[in-house]
Specification:
- This protein is an alpha/beta fold.
- The chain has one domain: Alpha-Beta Complex (Spore Coat Polysaccharide Biosynthesis Protein SpsA, Chain A), CATH 3.90.550.10.
- 38% of the residues lie in helices and 16% in strands.
- The chain contains eight helices and seven strands, in the order βαβαβαβαβαβααβα.
- Helix 2 links the parallel strand 2 and strand 3.
Length: 240
């Protein structure tokens, strides 16, 4: 494991208007936090200037790194690639739109010793439109019904996961919505913590009403299949 404690994965798809703000806010957080942290951008085949800006940020800061895809593969693939390339004890996740704030990682990391995944909960303080809030509420209700994970805001883009658990999650398209449930399949312990939420001030949202409702419902059946087929084991002794 690296000298850093936390690697924050930031998936990026056409977020050029937000990236210098991401750099500024993350650096401010790193300077205040007692936990040594770094950023891993995952560019998901952006067609704007995102990759160019990411390269500039990484050239200027040793605590920023990046992966770039050859084309757009989707959010689940970006998160999976991030998980696979983390070398620190803890893995964080935040969206590039900064509707959640890097400083709130400190609220989550307080519980990272006792829990294997700690996720933010925005439901008390959402700053989105009525339609977006309502669709997210319905989607979260559907997921909670299927997964029984007890989470009020499964889709909150602010999470900390122990890297050993993150790297064992078998990621398929859409399963980024089920990270708490996927950690539970590993007999991991999960917790949610209230975090702040902010309006999007730049760029375009990547999900609309249809894929906030229909997608999660379809993915729930994929999760149930995964739960039935999931292999979980512990080695008691070995000679290798």
């Amino acid at each position: 494991m690296e000298n850093y404690k936390l690697t924050i994965i930031i998936p990026v798809f056409n977020e050029s208007e937000n990236l210098f703000r991401v750099e500024k806010e993350c650096l401010n957080y790193f300077n205040k936090s007692k936990n040594r942290s770094k950023v891993l951008f995952v560019d998901d085949g952006s067609t704007d200037d995102s990759l160019k800006i990411i390269k500039t940020i990484c050239d200027n800061n040793a605590c920023f790194e990046f992966i770039s895809f050859d084309k757009n593969y989707g959010l689940s693939a970006a998160i999976k690639a991030g998980f696979d390339n983390v070398k620190t004890e803890l893995t964080g996740y935040i969206d590039a739109d900064l509707q959640t704030h890097p400083e709130d990682f400190d609220l989550l990391i307080e519980h990272a010793e006792a829990f294997d995944l700690v996720t933010g909960n925005r439901s008390h303080n959402r700053k989105d439109s009525f339609i977006k809030n309502m669709s997210s509420t319905i989607a979260n209700f559907i997921r909670r019904l299927f997964t029984q994970d007890g989470m009020d805001d499964t889709g909150c883009p602010l999470k900390i996961i122990k890297t050993t658990y993150a790297q064992q999650i078998p990621m398929f398209k859409g399963l980024h919505r089920f990270l708490p449930a996927m950690v539970m399949l590993q007999n991991g312990q999960i917790k949610q913590v209230d975090v702040r939420h902010f309006p999007r001030i730049a760029g375009q949202a990547k999900f609309g009403l249809l894929n906030r409702l229909v997608g999660p419902l379809i993915d729930c059946f994929g999760y149930l299949w995964m739960k039935k087929k999931y292999i979980n084991y512990k080695i008691s002794t070995k000679t290798c």
